[in-house]
């Protein structure tokens, strides 16, 4: 798949899918002006205690603790609840719980739907800290975890499901290796086995509508594109069915999980520009991915919208757009040390974890990944690129200089 121009002619239109959210995101969560006028954005209200005019009034609020009424800041705050409404609408769900990080969104959701004696199936490509949570804390509380290949077909999935499988978790595309998963198939298998399907939908925010594909619980690291400016840590868990909301809301209250008002406010603000940021970042990333495929130093580009990427057909079937994060695998003969020297020498790409902000980043991925099924690992030196809002020609020039200087 080295002919970049060919992909341009026949490939998907990248960056336009995000435009369908532009109007919604620009208006969602805004203040309705009253007669005396009001600011466009809602104010931040910070608080722990909520005071009432009488004990009776307070107790009346307490009766709604599993809904969104407030008696205490740990149960949420007005900005958090506004953000929850926007995320629920964006994901096509009915209810959202915002929590203090994307990882907390994964762990709170797992704790809400698992109990001692249950079995959990994780995709081998799952976000590393989710794997660590399952093998650490969930194991200590009597939940058994095993890993299925992200591309498992029906027979392979069936072989991994046990009588006590209560949750099948999915993440699509997978962290670092970008396998797109067949979510409708996994949903059918999960529901047939009496299990629930939880999806980490961080990469696909908006571009993958989880509930139309059979997902029960959709998780987002709002830290990434929704907040979008590398200055917030926040997560969300969205469900559609009332019984899932009961279980999730109960877990959030029992765990004291909530989102700080300022972080929720910054995320609401970030969402206003998410469609235009993502349109640009997706386009630039796709252009760089196509160009990198044609470079002799590159063996393989892991970007779901490239026909050579595992799961391309599923991406085309189920997603309306791509985001700006992808992987690059160098040809054999380029050492890890040479790649690291190249990454260190880039001027416009920061070196760091996380993604979804306005700035470009790179991160080595070879050597540090854990997989139970070894065929999922990159063979050569590999790194991940998060494409920011810089001029794409400048980014290409920086990468060109880096690749030209690589020692073979
Ligand atoms: C970053 C990330 C998380 C965790 O989000 P934090 O807010 O950083 O805790 C979870 N899942 C995926 C896929 C991520 O990329």
Automatic annotation (TrEMBL):
InterPro entries: Cys/Met-Metab_PyrdxlP-dep_enz (IPR000277), Cys_b_lyase_bac (IPR006233), PyrdxlP-dep_Trfase (IPR015424), PyrdxlP-dep_Trfase_major (IPR015421), PyrdxlP-dep_Trfase_small (IPR015422). GO terms for molecular function: cysteine-S-conjugate beta-lyase activity. Keywords: Lyase, Pyridoxal phosphate. The keyword Lyase applies. It comes from the Bacteria. Its cofactor is pyridoxal 5'-phosphate. Pfam families: Cys_Met_Meta_PP. Its EC number is 4.4.1.13. It catalyses: L,L-cystathionine + H2O = L-homocysteine + pyruvate + NH4(+). Belongs to the trans-sulfuration enzymes family. This is Cystathionine beta-lyase. It comes from Bombella pluederhausensis.
